[in-house]
């Protein structure tokens, strides 16, 4: 690990790094703890070269704050950074960073974002943060910069600055790291006695009480704030400074939580000021639509998602993409090992498409294959390939990642039974083989295919039904609590309205 203290040396080393190298940056004030460690580890994992800075920034401390006694443990910090695989550690002085001059240019974030939460009580703090972070970004020129979600107001302001000033850096907000007691890790925790540390857990406990009420349906911020305030009444050690519920991006006060909210708290434990926060999210439901091939799942799902403002997750396209890749590499559909190796390295992307006639734009290893995966050849082989254990494990994991935040419509053949067994609404769309074959015939003709045989399409569909329903891994079947809808004589609009009636 290289350690530099001068800007000129930092610039020299940065100039040696190729533009093809991905640089991650973690700005800190030192006194590193497990929270900082988690940021550095993520940066090392996601980048080729990692730079960490240690600088106790005087611009963000008011006259009556703890600049002089802020924890400093430089030798331990150096050892930790080297152990974690940091490539360069930048430790500048106040003179080097020009933070002691009265004539220093300051970056001033929007007043509306500085006038709430901590900004009410720490005059000048966020312009000090914004100034030093902007200077670091100009010096380090990172591709990614990592910040802890504990300082949620800081993260929101930095994201705003980066966006407004068109800075070429992506801001990554990382989860709060806590002690077993729930207390958010902070360098200032060193100020606390054992008794104070125990009492300080009330910050997190009170937030969790309010969150529990929120999850039961309470979306009025005043009522949630009241729950927290009641926990601090007449407390012998803790003094609540503020509890606010604001928009996570704009930091503006909310009167009702309709999507997501930042619930932030600050309190004094003795003489030590502590902060904590939780994100409250009104999670939209997951709608799982299963059924045999040709039942109209794709068309219904993408239109339903569009109407609801949900994400359309075309799982069938994912399996078709893998099938196309296997065929493109001329791998036999029974060669489990070769397919597993290929899938392990495959990159599948589903990109939104404003044209509802095209489900999604599909890329495999950065190659656009939207049309290529809809050919009869791919259709014939997709059931065999999708039955492979390695294929299903890879794609189910990817699909579940999409579903973490909710608000998706996912369709396939095992969505309600395997991928999203806890989906809030499960639909099983079905239709007779004849009706499905006719729909498939029209789709293929619209794609320019010719020499099509309806009887053969019916036979192909029946064979695929058998393969899908008898495969060993996640076979096609109706989930126990799914609503079955026969689509033979229904229009798409009628099917969609039926589904919406169950929401």
Total count of strands = 17
Helical run tally: 19
Strand order of the largest sheet: 1-4-3-2-5-6
What is the end-to-end distance? 56 Å
Major pleated sheet: 6 strands, parallel
* Overall spatial form: globular
Mean pLDDT over the full residue set? 91
Which residue ranges are poorly predicted, with pLDDT under 50 across at least 5 consecutive positions?
Answer: none
Proportion in β-strands: 15-25%
Q: What does this 3D model show about the protein?
A:
- The chain is of the alpha/beta class.
- The protein has helices at residues 7-15, 34-46, 74-84, 94-97, 111-114, 125-140, 152-164, 194-200, 202-215, 221-232, 297-308, 315-328, 336-345, 376-386, 389-402, 415-419, 433-446, 454-470, 492-501; strands spanning 2-4, 23-28, 49-54, 88-90, 144-148, 170-174, 238-246, 260-269, 272-281, 284-290, 311-314, 348-351, 361-364, 367-368, 406-412, 425-430, 483-486.
- Strand 8 and strand 9 (272-281) form a beta hairpin.
- Helix 12 (315-328) packs antiparallel against helix 15.
- The longest helix has 17 residues, at 454-470.
- The radius of gyration is 28 Å and the shape is globular.
Secondary-structure topology with pairs:
Blueprint: E1 2-4, H1 7-15, E2 23-28, H2 34-46, E3 49-54, H3 74-84, E4 88-90, H4 94-97, H5 111-114, H6 125-140, E5 144-148, H7 152-164, E6 170-174, H8 194-200, H9 202-215, H10 221-232, E7 238-246, E8 260-269, E9 272-281, E10 284-290, H11 297-308, E11 311-314, H12 315-328, H13 336-345, E12 348-351, E13 361-364, E14 367-368, H14 376-386, H15 389-402, E15 406-412, H16 415-419, E16 425-430, H17 433-446, H18 454-470, E17 483-486, H19 492-501
Parallel strand pairs: 1-4, 2-3, 2-5, 3-4, 5-6, 10-15, 10-16, 11-15, 16-17
Antiparallel strand pairs: 7-8, 8-9, 12-13, 13-14
Helix pairs in contact: 6-7, 9-10, 11-19, 12-14, 12-15, 13-15, 17-18
């Amino acid at each position: 690990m290289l350690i530099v203290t001068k800007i000129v040396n930092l610039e020299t080393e940065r100039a040696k790094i190729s533009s093809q190298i991905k640089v991650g940056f973690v700005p800190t004030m030192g006194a590193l703890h497990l929270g900082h460690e988690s940021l550095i580890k993520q940066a090392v994992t996601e980048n080729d070269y990692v730079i960490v800075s240690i600088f106790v920034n005087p611009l963000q401390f008011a006259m009556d704050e703890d600049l002089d006694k802020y924890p400093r443990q430089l030798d331990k910090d150096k050892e930790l950074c080297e152990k974690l695989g940091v490539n360069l550690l930048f430790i500048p002085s106040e003179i080097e960073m020009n933070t002691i001059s009265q004539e220093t240019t300051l970056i001033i974030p929007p007043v509306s974002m500085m006038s709430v939460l901590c900004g009410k009580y720490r005059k000048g703090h966020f312009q000090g943060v914004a100034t030093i972070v902007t200077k670091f970004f100009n010096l380090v020129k990172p591709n990614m910069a990592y910040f802890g979600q504990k300082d949620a107001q800081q993260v929101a302001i930095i994201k705003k600055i980066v966006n407004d000033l068109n800075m070429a850096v992506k801001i990554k907000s990382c989860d709060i790291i806590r002690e077993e007691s729930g207390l958010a890790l902070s360098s200032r925790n060193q100020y606390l006695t054992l008794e104070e540390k125990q009492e300080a857990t009330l910050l997190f406990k009170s937030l969790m009480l309010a969150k529990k009420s929120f999850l039961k349906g309470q979306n009025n911020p005043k009522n949630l704030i009241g729950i927290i305030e009641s926990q601090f009444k007449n407390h012998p050690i803790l003094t609540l400074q503020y509890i606010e519920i604001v928009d996570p991006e704009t930091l503006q006060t909310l009167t009702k939580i309709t999507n997501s909210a930042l619930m932030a708290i600050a309190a004094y434990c003795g003489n030590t000021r502590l902060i904590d926060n939780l994100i409250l999210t009104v999670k939209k439901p997951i709608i799982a639509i299963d059924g045999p091939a040709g039942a109209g799942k794709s068309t219904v799902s993408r239109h339903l998602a569009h109407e609801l403002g949900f994400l359309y997750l075309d799982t069938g396209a994912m399996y078709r993409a893998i099938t196309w890749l296997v065929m493109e590499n001329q791998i036999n559909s029974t060669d489990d090992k070769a397919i597993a190796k290929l899938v392990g390295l495959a990159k599948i992307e589903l990109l939104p498409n404003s044209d509802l006639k095209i489900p999604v734009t599909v890329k495999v290893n950065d190659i656009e294959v939207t049309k290529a995966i809809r050919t009869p050849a791919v259709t014939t082989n997709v059931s065999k390939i999708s039955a492979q254990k390695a294929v299903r494990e890879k794609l189910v994991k990817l699909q579940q990642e999409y579903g973490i935040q909710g608000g998706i419509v996912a369709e396939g053949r095992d969505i309600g039974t395997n991928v999203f067994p806890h989906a809030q609404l499960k639909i099983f769309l079905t239709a007779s083989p004849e009706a499905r074959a006719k729909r498939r015939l029209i789709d293929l003709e619209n794609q320019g295919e010719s020499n099509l045989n309806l009887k053969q399409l019916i036979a192909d569909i029946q064979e695929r039904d058998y393969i899908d329903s008898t495969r060993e891994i996640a076979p096609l079947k109706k989930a126990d609590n799914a609503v079955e809808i026969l689509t033979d004589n229904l229009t798409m609009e009628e099917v969609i309205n039926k589904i919406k009636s169950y929401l």
